[in-house]
Amino acid sequence: MSPFPLLRLPGVVLCEVFKSLSIGEKIKLSVCSNKTSIQINIARLYSQKVIVDLGCLSHKIKVHSEKNKEAFEIFIYPDHWNRPNSNIQKCSIACCSVRVMSAGIGIETFWKNYREGFLSFVRHLLKMFQCKISASRKVIQTDDGSKKATIELGQHYIEMSVTPIE
Predict the structure, then answer these.
(1) Could you say which of 32, 33, 55, 136 would form a disulfide bridge with 60 (CB–CB 3.0 to 4.6 Å)?
(2) Which of 131, 165, 153 is nearest to 48 (CA)?
(3) For residues 37 and 30, is the Cβ–Cβ distance under 8 A?
(4) Is 15 helix (H, G, I), strand (E, B) or coil?
(5) CA-to-CA distance for 145 and 110, rounded, in angstroms?
């Protein structure tokens, strides 16, 4: 059977297809190609609202619906594991070439370093969904009007731009 030409569907129909996908299906589809990711980002306004839990100590990002009906987990690992595995595929996430493997109710991603992986995937999710972000560690938000927050990761910190949810 030949592959289905999903991206050749008319925009309105494609938007309906994306609306019908689960959180996990959207995330998995978005890492398939830059083109697919862009189309999912365009349909963001029609996307369900999700909560992104930053599990800094467990090296995990959990994306779930507001009522916790569906959840998807993204594990971030350093890419120094050179274990041969036919299930690992090269994908593009936030302009980075990353190895990805399906795992249970989520995916495992392998990055140059933990910080790059965490920050890149959070950026990727922010483009796809209307998000609320919660962190299992301390979040320090600036008062200087710069709209930046720093997430403490034990020995490391991640700084990111934020917009308060009202």
Answers:
(1) 55
(2) 131
(3) yes
(4) helix
(5) 35
CA dist 109 and 101 (Å) reads 7
- Sequence-separated (6 or more) residues with CB below 8 Å from residue 34: 92
Q: How many angstroms separate the Cα of 20 from the Cα of each of 14, 46, 89, 136?
A: 10, 10, 25, 30
3-state secondary structure of 24: helix
Instruction: Quote the Cα angle for 9-11-13, to 5°.
Output: 65
Residues 92-132: pLDDT tens digits? Answer: 888 888 889 888 889 999 998 888 888 888 888 888 887 77
Q: Which is it for strands 71-78 and 106-111: parallel, antiparallel or unpaired?
A: parallel
Q: Decide: 135 and 54 in contact? Cβ < 8 Å.
A: yes
Closest CA to 113 of 148, 80, 71: 80
Rg of the chain's alpha carbons, rounded to an integer? 16
Q: Is 107 helix (H, G, I), strand (E, B) or coil?
A: strand
Residue positions counted in the chain? 166
Task: Give the other-Cβ count within 10 Å of 40's Cβ.
Answer: 22
Structural tokens at position 10: 């008319």
